[in-house]
Amino acid sequence: MNKTPVILCALAAIAVLVFLAIGDVINYPFAAGIGTALVLAAGLELHRNRKRSHQ
After folding, report:
1. Alpha-carbon gap, residue 9 to 35, rounded angstroms
2. In angstroms, what CA-CA distances link 5 with 25, 28, 29, 30?
3. Is the pLDDT of residue 2 over 80?
4. DSSP assignment of 5-48, as one string?
5. CB 6, CB 46: distance < 8 Å
6. Taking the model in full, what pTM does it have?
7. Residue 37: CB partners within 8 Å, gap ≥ 6?
8. Terminal CA-to-CA distance of the chain, rounded, Å?
9. Are 7 and 1 in contact (CB under 8 A)?
């Protein structure tokens, strides 16, 4: 994927997590863990694309 869609998807997912945490649907540590995993996955996807584009 391109850089912009990856970043937008990660931001949208984090916004949903914040909304669910504020609404007491999920607890804060769980939301923080999932948010961290999403940021790491987005970073890995961007890093993978950067490696592929330089070949």
Report:
1. 12
2. 27, 26, 27, 25
3. no
4. HHHHHHHHHHHHHHHHHHTTSS-HHHHHHHHHHHHHHHHHHHHH
5. yes
6. 0.72
7. none
8. 16
9. no
Burial class (CB in 10 A: 0-12, 13-18, 19+), 53: exposed
Token pair of 28 as six digits: 């804060």
DSSP 53: H
Residue with tokens 């999403």: 38
Q: Report the alpha-carbon distance of residue 46 to residue 32 in Å, rounded.
A: 21
Render pLDDT for 13-47 as a digit per residue (tens, 0 to 9): 889 999 999 998 999 999 899 989 988 988 888 88
- State residue 53's pLDDT score: 64
